[in-house]
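*** Residues and shapes ***
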Amino acid sequence: SVFSTRVSAFALVCSRVLSEVALFLFGITFFVAAFACAISCLEQDHAGFSSIPQAALSLYKITFGMFSGYDELEEDPALLFVCFVYVVITIIFMLNLLIAQLN
């Protein structure tokens, strides 16, 4: 039995939105893991991308806009290109996918 129609509708919407956000975060985590492995295989000397966990943390920082070492990325064109491709895929494609899922 339903005690309040508004509360049950709110709970239903929240559960559906949270499931879509969880799928989005799973997709972002997949891309972070894939790009962290790829970046750690590059010959580069950037301290933020020296190992897979540090590269994953730096990629999460790039995704959330908290990365501050963009000047150092310009010294290594291969690393800059991979980070650019990551930004295009995650921020443009994945955020548009999240918006499409929530509509």
Q: What stands out?
A: Helices lie at 5-41, 52-64, 70-73, 77-102. The CA atoms of residues 78 and 84 lie 10 Å apart. The longest helix spans residues 5-41.
